[in-house]
Write a structure and sequence with these properties.
The protein has 2 domains: 75 residues, no CATH class; 39 residues. The chain contains 4 helices and 4 strands. It is mainly alpha-helical and 135 residues long. A two-stranded antiparallel ribbon has the order 1-2. Strands 3-4 form a two-stranded antiparallel sheet.
Length: 135
Amino acid sequence: MDLNVANCPRCGRIYAKTLRNLCPDCLREEEELYEIVYRYLRDNPKSTVQQVSENTGVPEERILGFLRQDRIMSSEWSQLTYPCERCGTQINTGRFCESCNQEMQQSLDSAARSIKGKNADQQRSGYHIGTRRPR
Ligand SMILES: [Zn+2]
Ligand SMILES: [Zn+2]
């Protein structure tokens, strides 16, 4: 018995698991939508997400999904923006805006520093204990 199956999150059907998180039918539909969006953007590079959605019939959510997965790189299509998942600022690549990326990087850095600082303290006190002459 093959237990390597899952419920498709989109249509609920049970399917044999693949690398992608969708059943083959939904995957095919997804690829078709992607093709439609991609071709539309190639011909109309300065479109907004709303315009693409209106003119292709592809729901905005799905277009945003392609953008968030970086399947559509919007550097050439700078009108294509969507909200940062953290603060809602309009962005056109990845999941977070520049300042959120920086803030998250900084908090990671300071977390790393405070861990390092603790280790340094421990090493210092260890050094003192280690060099104290026994009476
Ligand atoms: Zn499905
Ligand atoms: Zn942000």
